[in-house]
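Aim 2 progress update. The chain analyzed this quarter is reproduced below.
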Amino acid sequence: METTSFVSGISRKDAGRYSRQLLVNDFGVSGQKGLKNAKVLIVGAGGLGCPTATYLGAAGVGTLGIVDYDEISTDNLHRQVAFKESQVGQLKAQGLAENVKLQNNNVILQVHNVSLDSSNAMDIFKNYDIICDCTDNVATRYLINDVCVLLKLPLVSGSALRWEGQLTVYNYGEDCPCYRCLFPNPPDPTTVTNCNEGGVLGPIVGVIGSMQALEVMKIAGNLPGALSKQLLLYDGRDGKSRVIRLRSRNPNCAVCGENPTVTSPIDYVVFCGAGAHDKTENLQLLEKSDRVDVEEYREIRKIKKPVLLDTRPPVEFEIAHLPEAINVTLDDCRNFKLDDLAERTTVNSANNSEAYVICHRGNDSQRAVLLLRERFGAGFNFKDIVGGYDAWAQKIDDQFPLY
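Predicted structure tokens:
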């Protein structure tokens, strides 16, 4: 075959593979080259990390790093769509990297099977150009933000819960705020809900993760329109989205301000009062004498029909509950009057002042016991069931649904 002289902006191989995105106005050859030269780190190989990594790998990112310490579990599969049933038990970062490699063998994959913390974040991040926060806990968000500011790296941040998702780009462009500019102080850990507790629909994380990949492509291609100083809010229930303007960088910000006090990573678990992971904390709010384990409760219900208050939301109560359970949510406990309690249950001041309290994992039930005691005084005996329905399913009835 005859070879002719021509001028090419991109290789024949890349032109054939990425032709459809090369044809997009404003992206083209320069955008593709920028993406191919980019080194992108994804923190969190879960619901957001899966679509972000998959689309960036397919689009031809040069180097893709993935950080995650966790293993793939069955309850991940409904939303972490890069994984297959055969991968359950495998490390997430490794599994996601393997699937990206199957999609595009040209991508350089860097796997970090570690729990990201203050001791390793700087060493990992310094090898990348763009960071994607695909995590689900506050402590790690502050850590990722601070390290990005210290290393002058743009941060593409996504989040999703239930029907809703959010997306923004921090620390990118003139006067762009960082996460700390907007949230200088962490929230009360007892008010924070993650997917593990509040749930999320798979397409929601799919939408936000895909859009995170899109923001990376804009930044890598040096294109206008990145969500810097803007926050996209997506409502999947109504099928609507809107973008709100964020305030500019805070000159008093502890990490990116004019006189920063955070000049290296700190202890974010202490700062946030919560663990740097999305696992459910096992709270210890009550004395041992105020709690019964599931084995004890099994024996109690053999002797008599106890009053069992189930503090879960109605949507969880519907999944499964013990026959004697009465759905009295945590919000109900905050607002109950004595007449309300007597009307909903057999607990009253005259002849029955004893009740047991259960929830999903044994945390909200402890909070409920404290609330009920505060409202009704020492004359009422409320006891928490340790470990909640999770413990019941694991130790008493292996047919009881785990979720």
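Residues 163 and 204 are 6 Å apart (CA to CA). The longest strand covers residues 155-161. These observations will guide the mutagenesis experiments scheduled for the next reporting period.
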